[in-house]
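Q: Here's a chain of 147 amino acids. Please give me its 3D structure as tokens.
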Amino acid sequence: MRRSFTVLALVCVLAAISVGCSKQRDTGLPAIQPPSSTSASASPSVPTTPVTAVTIVAKTIQWDLKQLLFKANATVTVTVDNQDAGIPHDFGVYSNAARTPDKEIDKPATDVTGPAKKDYTIKPLKAGTYYFQCDIHPSMNGTITVK
């Protein structure tokens, strides 16, 4: 009996140590990223001031920004700086997170093949949350907050 208890206690201790020493634990909170060593000052990942003009960079089939903050009831110019040589990108705005065609608010008429820049004029939006994506590469997407 005493031997069974000792083995059970040992198993529990080893399990607790392995959980405590695990490199990845799901805390339910976003991971904290260390500051970049190549930059003296880190740029904010979340915008704090609503704008009427913004540049978003497409590079390696990714946007450099995942969150945009637009001024409510104002026309906004989005400049797509496509740095992907020979690859086209565009910028579409949607009213739902699924970004389905029936929820498209601002459909891009043309794309831009990199390396090149193109301005997209977004009609005034009411305060709320919207979504954007490159319609050619739907994995390139993010959120627009309008205030």
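Q: Can you summarize the key feature?
A: The longest helix spans residues 2-20.
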